[in-house]
Structure formats: C-alpha cells, structure tokens
Amino acid sequence: MDLKEIAKILKCDFSGENFEVTKMNTLRDAKKSEISFVANSKYIKEIQDSNAGAIIVDRSTKEFVPKDTIALVVDNPYWEMATLSKYFAPPIEDETLAEPKIGKGSVVSPKAEIAKGAVIGENCTIMAHVYIGANSVIGNNTIIYPSVSIYRDCRVGSNCIIHANTTIGSDGFGFATNKMGEHRKIYQNGNVVIEDDVEIGSSTTIDRAVFGTTLIKYGVRIDNLVQIGHNCVIGEHSVLVAQAGISGSTTMGRNVVMGGQSATAGHLNIAPFTTMAARSGVTKSINQSGLTFAGFPLMEHKLWLKLQAKIARLIK
C-alpha cells in the first residue's frame, strides 16, 4: 500500500515523500519499506533506533521519530495499528497458488485437506480431517494425527509428532480498546515455526505471531491442553505439562519445565533450566538459571515447602 493511502485510512497527514509500504512490523525489526507503531513512551529508545520508513505515533512521541522516518500522528496509535493490520492480512486461502506438493513415501488420508501452496516432505503420515493451510510446510518423517489444523504460512519441522485436535497458527488473542470500551481486532499476520523433533499432545493451541514468528525450538515436548500465546519462544528441549499457559511474547531458554496448570504473564524472559512446579504463577522475568519455583506469588520451591508446613501447623 502507498503511504498516502495509509494516511487516508488513518485520517492523518504527513510530511515527506510517499513510498510503497510492503509490510507492518515491530520497531526493532522494521525495514525502510515497512511501517511500525509506538503506543507507549517506554519504547522511545526503540523509536530512535528503528529503521522503519514510517511510524504511527501520538503527539507526545512525535518528536522522537528520526528525521529520515515519516511520522503518522494519531490520537490512539494502538487503535490505529489494529485498524491498519486488516489491510496487510493475507488471504485465508489463495487460489492463485500452485497445487500442494506431497513428498515421496508420504501417506495422506483422502479425508485430509491440503490447501494450495502447501508442501509436505517425504515419509509423512497425514491422517483424516487434518487441514494444512496455504503456504504451510511440513518436514520429513512427521506424523500428524486426526483433526489437527495447521493454518497458512506455518512451518513444521522433520521427525515431529502432532496429536489429535491440536491447532497451530490460530490468531493470537489481540485487540485494541478505545475510550468507549469498544474492541477492534488486531490481525495476526505472522506465523508459527516448529523446529525438528518436537512432539505436541492433543488439543493444544499455539497462536501465530502478530508480526514475525511464534517459535517452538528443537526437541521441545508439549503435553495435552497447553496454550502458547502469540510471539512466544520456547527454548530447546523444554517440557510443558498439561494445562500450562504461556502468555504472549514470553521467551523461554532451553530445558525449561512447566508443571501442570502453571502459567506465565506476557513479555517475560525465563532463564534456561528453570523448573516451575504445578500451578505456579510467574509474573516477573526469571534471570538466574537452574532454580525451581512453586506457588503464587512465585517463590523458590524450598521456601514454598516451608511455608506450607507452617500453615499446616497453624491450623492444627
């Protein structure tokens, strides 16, 4: 889209040369042909370091936009980012793409649906009622059990196992809210990438990224009924047990273990080799590796055990 057309949609003016905007992206990752936004003053440094060709800002952050970047000034940048995200959303299915490619030795149930543009590697097993979306790629020797849905543009590696009813690449829970309390959908235009040797249990959901990628790294093991939010990164060989929930944009190091019904808030960093006992609630980043935690509010596991012992004595 031309920047001039975008300004018209957002009902704002701009000074500078018009150019073709190819994509929406984060401040950190945006290129000269892309547009970004800032909805919070805490990202001022990222504004100044951004390579975006244009940035949606409000009046309080306009002055921090670099001279060679065009500022689109609006009252509510987050709301207008949601407005614009719809225009950059790809079609759900694309009939202009090539017919799907099925690798040698792969068995695809006649009851499965493989969209145009999809690629399936060699020696895969795709069972009944599986849906693989446009431009999705499945590696070699991967097994996908019945009723799994893989939305468009997602990537699944080789030697993976995905159990029944799991959904990969559904929209993250993203919306903007205005002063009237009305909600507007933020279209999730990124994807999900699952690396090699990953096993995912049944009825698990992995949301696609707003921009960029939700990433499940090599060797991860995910149980049934796990929720992974948009833009999360799950480190190598991590283990997520049933009903664990990871809020959006949380990054885990390698070999993190989350017990059943444990959960994290969003935008956190979890150090490698961290263990969280069942029903733990993580509200702050964990920066020291190798520790075990329990409870809510979260505390080290040994301290939590002592606390439970004291409570038990009090009620005798």
TrEMBL record:
The species this protein was found in: Sulfurimonas xiamenensis
HAMAP family linked to this entry: LpxD
Domain UDP-3-O-[3-hydroxymyristoyl] glucosamine N-acyltransferase non-repeat region: start-end pairs: 18-86
GO cellular-component term (any): membrane
Superkingdom classification of source: Bacteria
Gene name of this polypeptide: lpxD
Record's keyword annotation contains Lipid metabolism: yes
InterPro entries on file: Hexapep, LpxD, Trimer_LpxA-like_sf, UDP_GlcNAc_AcTrfase_non-rep
Protein name, as recorded: UDP-3-O-acylglucosamine N-acyltransferase
Top EC group: transferase
Catalysed reaction, written as an equation: a UDP-3-O-[(3R)-3-hydroxyacyl]-alpha-D-glucosamine + a (3R)-hydroxyacyl-[ACP] = a UDP-2-N,3-O-bis[(3R)-3-hydroxyacyl]-alpha-D-glucosamine + holo-[ACP] + H(+)
Subunit structure: Homotrimer.
Annotated function: Catalyzes the N-acylation of UDP-3-O-acylglucosamine using 3-hydroxyacyl-ACP as the acyl donor. Is involved in the biosynthesis of lipid A, a phosphorylated glycolipid that anchors the lipopolysaccharide to the outer membrane of the cell.
BP GO terms, sorted: lipid A biosynthetic process
Pathway linked to the protein: Bacterial outer membrane biogenesis; LPS lipid A biosynthesis
Protein family membership: Belongs to the transferase hexapeptide repeat family. LpxD subfamily.
Presence of keyword Transferase: yes
Record EC number: 2.3.1.191
Alphabetized UniProt keyword annotations: Acyltransferase, Lipid A biosynthesis, Lipid biosynthesis, Lipid metabolism, Repeat, Transferase
Active site per database record: H230 (proton acceptor)
Molecular function per GO: N-acyltransferase activity; UDP-3-O-[(3R)-3-hydroxyacyl]-glucosamine N-acyltransferase activity
